């Protein structure tokens, strides 16, 4: 049985979080959300959750998305991260320095985001999803 892909969405804008949650849930992804970087990091560190992909806003209260990306990439370098932002003239520089895999400026097209997510997941798994086998 194939396990669903787990996506974490971190954004302090509740409307964006809700839209992304609904969009990816409707595509049968297992979606978790956080409204700030600190809560996002807590979910990432939870023992029973291993995310396949993270989408994070760059500018948020408590801990910025740039800090989240830096922390996650040091501890879990294989998790693809998409940085999204509507702030600043050159936010892609911050995201690139933090090693985000993709940077998108708000507003973005959901179908384009979906294509990027699929491409990053294929790249991560080599075209297949790992399965966990139960011992007999």
Task: Produce the secondary structure layout.
Layout: E1 6-10, H1 14-25, E2 30-34, H2 37-45, E3 53-57, H3 65-75, E4 81-85, H4 91-97, E5 102-105, H5 110-125
Parallel strand pairs: 1-2, 1-3, 3-4, 4-5
Helix pairs in contact: 2-3
Characterise this structure.
β3 (53-57), α3 and β4 form a beta-alpha-beta unit. The protein has one domain: Response regulator (Rossmann fold), CATH 3.40.50.2300. It is built from five helices and five strands, in the order βαβαβαβαβα. By secondary structure, the protein is α/β, with parallel strands linked by helices.
Short recap of the structure:
The protein has helices spanning 14-25, 37-45, 65-75, 91-97, 110-125; strands spanning 6-10, 30-34, 53-57, 81-85, 102-105. By secondary structure, it is of the alpha/beta class.
List keywords for this structure.
5-stranded parallel beta sheet, alpha/beta, 136 residues, Rossmann fold, 5 helices
| Order of adjacent strands in the largest pleated sheet | 2-1-3-4-5
Q: Average pLDDT across residues? A: 85
Taken from the alpha-carbon principal axes, the silhouette is: globular
- Taken in chain order, the helices and strands follow as EHEHEHEHEH
Total domains, how many?
A: 1
CATH superfamily: Response regulator
Determine the fraction of residues in helical runs and give it as a percent range. Answer: 40-55%
Largest sheet: 5 strands, parallel
